[in-house]
Specification:
heterodimer; A: 291 residues; alpha+beta; 11 helices; B: 165 residues; 5-stranded mixed sheet; 5 helices
Chain lengths: 291, 165
């Protein structure tokens, strides 16, 4: 249980970090909270030549909300701080709830939202709520910056659109539109400190009792957190009825693509996709009509 | 290449040269001989290695030693610094029978300290959430939950008595 040897850098500025990544080349690995990377190194699944820690960069630990622009979460903002932030609790409760299902107090005190996304586990709990809320990922490199929608960021288990030399510096989430709300729920073998066997996030936007827009994302049932686009199409533009929710659950179950693994069988996962889809749609609808 | 770091543990200042691949858990146990902090799973799942860094609990098995440069650490050895009088949390663990083999105890006590510093009057549900992810294979948890409630009450009374003075 000893970590493999590596060099360690803790740059004070983003520019310095990007220069280090360019100098160190492919063997360098960026680290935020370390709760995924150190475990992987411990298991021998990751052997970086160098670790570039982002923690000492002051400008990256922000959690900002403005009623005009929405929420931005910096790369080193801790899970615990995001989940307890008054603006997150107020405007993005589904994100806070997703975070509180993750790991334990110590890991949430160390780990970051951006790290959870960059680790790109199909079961990443932050991904479904952030995708349904329309989050964008901001990536910096030496000669500039780009941003892309979070649902285009995931490329496979552990794989992202991040290119060598790039660092995800923040994510931004738009202001929730009027008449909309989101929800995230997950099921795992144990109630706490376990990885999600299935997670579902949904955002619904209403005009009266008509669902104008729906976004549904299924976690841990495909190689990436997947948009349930057929289910979204089924729900959008329709009158909200118990029958519609029932059908949405079935549709989501059908379009999910789970595998059987140590946590659950594919068959059980498909059944749970239906259950969770119904529950998140009901909760999101209740929230949207309350607000 | 070794890194020179300075940090505080339980009020004592240290200046050390550490290899970057060593964890805070290894440094505390092997270099500082503070073996009250245990190593359980090494993956952040069991809570046994919990220590406080700058006022919040972390898993010392997942924390690189180099990363605590300039920081303040508190371990179970720092709960009762005089070594004579126990901290109310320790006292409550003894009184309620919350300790059996003792392996999870230091992590549990640090988690209790973290919880009570943020929430001095937790409900049973909040205590269970605060200790969630700390595995105990002996007690069945009930005595530990009770110990935290007892400690919270004692600490509350001590604060009230101090305020009256």
């Amino acid at each position: 249980m000893r970590l493999p040897r590596f060099e360690y850098f803790a740059p004070k500025t983003l520019k310095e970090a990007l220069n280090l990544l360019a100098d160190q080349g492919e063997g360098a690995h960026v680290m935020a909270g370390g709760t995924d990377i150190v475990v992987k190194m411990n298991h021998g699944r990751l052997k970086p030549k160098a670790i570039v820690a982002l923690e000492a960069i002051d400008e990256l630990d922000h959690i900002h909300f403005r009623a005009t622009d929405g929420l931005t979460i910096g790369a080193t903002a801790r899970l615990a701080d995001v989940a307890s932030h008054p603006d997150v609790l107020n405007h993005y409760p589904a994100l806070a709830e997703a975070i509180l299902t993750m790991a334990n107090v110590e890991v949430r005190n160390m780990g970051t939202v951006v790290g959870n996304l960059c680790n790109a586990a199909p079961s990443a709990d932050c991904a479904p709520p952030l995708i349904v809320m329309g989050a964008q990922v901001v990536l910096s490199r030496l000669n500039g910056e780009r941003s892309l929608p979070l649902d285009q960021f995931f490329k496979g288990p552990g794989l992202t659109a991040m290119e060598p030399g790039e660092v995800v510096t923040s994510i931004s989430v738009p202001v929730p539109p009027a008449g909309s709300a989101a929800s995230y729920k997950r099921i795992s073998g144990r109630c706490g400190v376990d990885i999600a066997a299935v997670g579902v996030g949904a955002m619904v936007m209403f005009d009266g009792d008509i669902c104008k827009e729906a976004r549904i994302v299924l976690g841990a049932v495909a190689p990436i957190p997947m948009r349930a686009t057929k289910t979204e199409d089924l729900v959008q533009g329709r009158q909200w009825t118990p029958d519609l929710i029932e059908k949405a659950g079935q549709e989501a179950s059908e379009e999910s693509k789970p595998i059987s693994d140590v946590r659950a069988s594919a068959q059980w996962r498909k059944a749970m996709v239906a259950v969770l889809t119904r529950r998140v749609l009901q909760e999101a609808q209740a929230r949207a009509t309350r607000s | 290449m070794k890194h020179h770091i300075k940090f505080k543990v339980n009020g004592d200042e240290y200046s050390l040269a550490v290899d970057p691949w060593r964890t805070l858990n290894e440094m505390l146990r092997e270099d500082l001989n503070l073996t009250g902090t245990k190593l359980g799973c090494g993956t952040g799942d069991c809570g046994a290695c919990s220590v406080m860094v700058d006022g919040r609990t972390v898993s010392s098995c997942l924390t690189l030693a180099v990363s605590v440069d300039g920081k303040t650490i508190r371990t179970v050895e720092g709960l009762a610094p005089s070594g004579e009088e126990l901290h109310p949390i320790q006292e409550a663990f003894v009184k309620t029978g919350a300790i059996q083999c003792g392996f999870c105890t230091s992590g549990m006590e640090m988690a209790a300290l973290n919880l009570l510093s943020k929430n001095p009057s937790p409900t049973e549900k909040e205590i269970r959430a605060g200790l969630s992810g700390h595995l105990c294979r002996c007690t069945g948890y009930n005595q530990i939950v009770e110990a935290v409630a007892v400690a919270a009450e004692k600490m509350r009374q001590t604060r009230l008595a101090e305020e009256e003075k």
